[in-house]
Amino acid sequence: MNQTDAFVANKLAVVDLSPKLRYPDPIHGTIELPDWFPIVANQESVRRMMFIRQLGLKAYVDFPGAIHTRFSHALGTMQLAKELGNMLSEELKKTGQPSKAANLAANLNTLMAAGFLHDIGHGPFSHAIDYPASKLLGKTHVEIGRKIIVDEFQKLEAHGVNINSVVDIIEGHHTHPFLHEIVDGPIDVDKLDYLLRDSHHVGLRYHFDLDQSLHEYVVLGPDDNLESCVLGLRNTLQARTTAEIFVLIWKGMYDLVYHIQDSRIAEKMLEHAILVACNKNSKLRAKFSEESQYRKLDDDTVLDAVGKVEGFPKDVVEMIRSDTLYEPIVDMELSQTPYSFGRRFVESLLKFDESDVAETAVGLGQSLGGSMGLKSEQVIVDLVKSRKPKTIHLMGKTIEDQPIYLDGKSDVIAAIEPRIALKAYIHPSLLNKFKQSEVQKQLRREIEAWS
């Protein structure tokens, strides 16, 4: 063996051929993967997340930088679950709360798996196809995710992951509330990741000090009664202010990104196109009504399949691809105040889940189109529901005392109320044939009849 061969052989001898256990990440720097990750990394349900954009059609319409995926968000959520779990466990040891500390340490892999798998059942295009899926399949993305986790990830039990607990954490009903609130709560790691990740990729430079924020988290409640313990924040000016910044960024992202008008119109166009296409094409309907097929859908397969159905579905896909969208013709804020227009309507909508809200909007659109002499797909009614943030707990006098609520200490949080916006979008070729005031009056009549 000459010197060159010896040098190459020596280099090859020290090459690490073990599975990749870290990823570079634009938000968290480096994401260190757990030992169990290579076991599931190449499963179809995991790989599918790489082909579903986190913000769906927003990358086509308003934010060309928003090409990040469900997979990158899943990794980020997993990373934060690990960081927060470790941080809380160490702090609890130092402050003489051994039961909480031991519980977190024992459940760390389960928390990380819940963070990674919390969106595994999501369909393509963010939430744009939630309604067609719930209507045709009869399940939410959470229910689909539960089935995937139970069916496909039992092998993780041998690596310190309790699959039943993963489901309970994701669905927000674990026996120990502070565990599920790490992944599904008012200030959970899911929101922490998607707010920072989404704002980064859309180009809005929202920021809060993540490392400092995590140090403000505490597990509130007695150490000998874990069933009553919740996740909260220290009751300090810094913690309260950080929480206010977090909630304002959350609200700002809904106002400026998640509910932004043009992307919202494209999403509603696609929603209606899928419903029409599935009624016209039995093979496409099977992709949405049979769970085994639905689990295989990603962004590109949906857009291609819908675009092959002649008529309205194909037209919509071509319009989205060419950025030729329906035009807004109605935009009204509905109020809950006594004697105001739509008060009872709004009260009902605020009690509805998202599927019921979408169902109501579709029904209103069909009635409006009929009264205007239009085909049902030529005018689309949209109900945009803005939520009030979940209640954030603050520490009482001591960590074991009854928690207090941030909205009682913060005028900023208390001022945020749920809202309903009523919108209508019309095919661009019809915009000049109807006066906005006439359409608005007719829509008011439809709501009054509904009420």
Structure description:
It is a single chain. The protein is mainly alpha-helical. It has 2 domains: 26-260, Hypothetical protein af1432; 326-390 and 407-451, Alpha-Beta Plaits (2-Layer Sandwich). The chain is built from 23 helices and 9 strands. It has a 3-stranded antiparallel sheet, sandwiched between helices. It has a two-stranded antiparallel ribbon with strand order 1-2. It has a two-stranded antiparallel sheet with strand order 3-4. A hairpin with a 3-residue loop joins strand 1 and strand 2 (29-32). The protein starts with a helix and ends with a helix. Residues 7-18 have low confidence and may be disordered.
For the record, give the distance between the C-alpha atoms at the N and C termini, rounded to a whole number.
88 Å
The largest sheet has its strands arranged as: 5-9-6
> If you compute it from the alpha carbons, what radius of gyration comes out, rounded to the nearest whole angstrom?
24 Å
Number of strands: 9
Helix content: 40-55%
The second-level CATH architecture of the largest domain is Orthogonal Bundle
**What is the percentage of strand-forming residues?**
5-15%
CATH superfamily of the largest domain: Hypothetical protein af1432
Low-confidence stretches: 7-18
Oligomer state equals single chain
- The helix tally amounts to 23
Task: Briefly note the CATH topology name of the largest domain.
Answer: Hypothetical protein af1432
Give me the secondary-structure category: mainly alpha
- State the major sheet: 3 strands, antiparallel
CATH class of the largest domain: Mainly Alpha
Shape: globular
**What is the count of structural domains?**
2
Mean pLDDT: 92
